[in-house]
Specification:
- Keywords: FAD, Flavoprotein, Oxidoreductase.
- This is Xanthine dehydrogenase family protein subunit M.
- This protein is an alpha+beta fold and 289 residues long.
- The chain has three domains: 47 residues, Uridine Diphospho-n-acetylenolpyruvylglucosamine Reductase, domain 2 (2-Layer Sandwich), CATH 3.30.43.10; 111 residues, Uridine Diphospho-n-acetylenolpyruvylglucosamine Reductase, domain 3 (2-Layer Sandwich), CATH 3.30.465; 110 residues, Enolase-like, domain 1, CATH 3.30.390.
- The protein is built from eleven helices and 14 strands.
- The N and C termini lie far apart (49 Å).
Length: 289
């Protein structure tokens, strides 16, 4: 379908974009790469009267470690994430996710900030942010704010971003020795939304005991979901095959999928069980190596 009519505005600075949003009101939407918003507009799930293009704002595309924090600018594209040497060597979970995100044409324009800010449980990056315990940095009328990822997703396409806020940066604790992450999703075809997906990040001590664990689920609930009960089973314990099997079962029980064209509820629960166990094993292998 063709989107409903809208007025187009281009902002060249954060200040200009925020001022435009305040002037135009609730019917204005920000757009960077557009690969989350435009499909909804074509389906008439979103009908904003104004689009504020923020893709030309400079200084929001970067990947760097700053002290104990990995910082990723919100305008960093999926392709930049895919090819960044720092992420390849120390944060391979990003490579897992990007390779499963749409196709190269989409990855060249789609941004990590847009993927997260959209609040879509079917997008890939939200599960990674939950697993990695990210903090979201946003700029708005009242200045800069830091939002822990567990406080960011509020509901179906709803986030903690206030009207006029722009997501500017993602902050993630720097990768430690004996840590590793992994992500995988099942999809009907290349470029489709996930039938189900699982992101895992684990940190071990010198004896192989799980010191910290993050597990995020993709597209099996109305909001991106943390598997809290499964994390508690592993934290503080040496990870065994039995515990991994237990967490897989917990994942299948605690997720909230709905039957649709991608599969029945029972099928999705089975997939989550299997992927959770596989990603735990893959993350463990990376942490031990």
């Amino acid at each position: 379908m063709i989107p409903a009519n809208f007025d187009y505005h281009k902002a060249t600075s954060l200040e200009e974009a925020i001022a435009l949003s305040q002037e135009l009101g609730d019917e204005a939407k920000y757009m960077s790469g557009g690969h989350s918003l435009l499909p909804m507009m074509k389906l008439r799930f979103a009908t904003p009267e104004h689009i504020i293009d923020i893709s030309k704002i400079e200084g929001l595309s970067y990947i760097k470690e700053d002290g104990d924090i990995l910082k990723i600018g919100a305008m960093t594209t999926q392709s930049e994430i895919e090819h960044d040497p720092l992420l390849k060597s120390n944060y391979p979970i990003f490579g897992d996710a990007v390779w499963l995100t749409a196709d190269p044409a989409v990855r060249n324009f789609g941004t990590i900030g847009g993927n997260i800010a959209h609040g879509d449980a079917a997008n890939d990056q939200p599960a990674l942010m939950l697993a990695l315990r990210a903090t979201i940095i946003a700029e708005g009328v009242d200045g800069e704010k830091a939002i822990p990822i567990d406080d960011f997703f509020h509901g179906f396409y709803m986030t903690a971003l206030e009207p006029g806020d722009i997501l500017t940066e993602i902050q993630i604790p720097k990768a430690k020795a004996n840590s590793g992450g992994a992500y995988h999703k099942v999809e009907r075809k290349v470029g489709d939304y996930a039938t189900a997906g699982v992101a895992v990040h684990i940190e071990l001590d010198g004896d192989g005991v799980c010191q910290e664990i993050g597990i995020g689920l993709t597209n099996v609930s109305a909001v991106p979901m943390r598997l809290e009960r499964g994390e508690e089973v592993l934290r503080g314990h040496k990870v065994t095959d039995a515990l991994i099997a237990q967490v897989g079962q917990i994942a299948s029980e605690d997720c909230e999928p709905e039957s649709d064209l991608r599969g029945s509820e029972a099928y999705k629960r089975s997939i989550v069980n299997t992927i959770t166990k596989r990603m735990l094993n893959k993350a463990l292998e990376r942490a031990r190596n």
